[in-house]
Amino acid sequence: MNSSRRHFRSGLKLFFAAAIVVDFQQCNGSGRVRPFEGEKTIWHEGFDRYDFIMDDATGAITPMTAPASEVTTFGIDESIKGGKRRCVVVVPKKAAPGNPWSWRGCYWNHQPQSEVELLKRGFHIAFVAPDPGRQGKAWDVWYKFLTENHGLAKKAAFVGMSKGGVNAFNWGGVNPDKVACIYADNPAVYDEDWPKITVLAKHDVPLLHAVGTEDFVLRRHTIVVENTYHQLAAQSP
Fold it and tell me: In this structure, how many other beta carbons lie within 10 angstroms of the beta carbon of residue 18?
C-alpha cells in the first residue's frame, strides 16, 4: 500500500473514531466498568492489555498472559485449538460515558490506528478469535462477558478488515440491537449473510466502508451492501 492511500485510510479511521463517540452517548453501559482480571501487558501508547482463553464447550473465560513475542509484533494465533480460543481486551486510561467499546473479530493488531484513537477517547477495545465459518455461541458468550460481567455498553462498534468484515455482518445481522455501527475495510460477506444486510439497514446501523478500487470485493460485496442500504432508504416513507 502506498503512503497516500495509507494516510487516506488512517484519516477515515480517525473520522470514524470521532463520529461514533456521539452514537454511544445513548448506549450506556451498566454504571462503572468492572476491572478485568489477570496479568496485564502494555499495548500501543501505554494502554493496559488483558488476554483470555475461552473454552467453547463450557463458556469459561480464563485469564492468560500474552507471550512476550506478541506484545511487540503483529497478530496472535487466531486458530481454535482443542475447542479453545484467544480473546483480548485493551483498557482506556479513563472510560468514556456509557462505557463504549469496539469489537474486532479477525486480524488482531493489524492497522490498529482506529482502535488507538478510540482508546484515547475512552473506548475499550475487544477481540475474540473467529470461527472458520459462522459466529455463534462463542460470540454470544464473549458479548455477555463484556456487557454483563464488566459493564461495557450494550452496543458494540464493529471494526473489521477483509474477512474481519464477516463478524459484523454474520453476528451483527442476527443481533442488530447490539451493534452501534460498523467500520469495514475491504469487507467480505458470506453468501448466507446477505439477508442480514437488510436487517442491519432496517435497524439503521451506520456503515463506513473503505475499499480499494482494485479489490475484488468492491463490486462483489461492498457496493451490494451499500446499494441495499440505499434501496431501503428510498423505500422508507
Answer: 12
pLDDT digits (tens, 9 = 90+) for 112-151: 888 999 999 999 999 999 876 566 788 999 999 999 999 9
- Measured CA to CA in angstroms, residue 62 lies from 59, 104, 187 at distances of 10, 19, 31
Contact 160, 128 (CB under 8 A): no
CB 87 within 8 A of CB 36: no
Q: Give pLDDT tens digits for 157-173.
A: 998 888 888 878 889 99
Report the relative pairing of strands 40-43 and 47-55 from DSSP bridges.
antiparallel
Q: Is the pTM of this model over 0.85?
A: yes
CA Rg value for the chain: 17
C-alpha closest to that of 109 among 187, 164, 29, 31: 164
Measuring CA to CA, which residue among 117, 97, 104, 107 is closest to residue 47?
Answer: 117
Give the Cα separation of 105 and 125 in Å (integer): 11
- Closest by alpha carbon to 31, among 143, 150, 142? 150
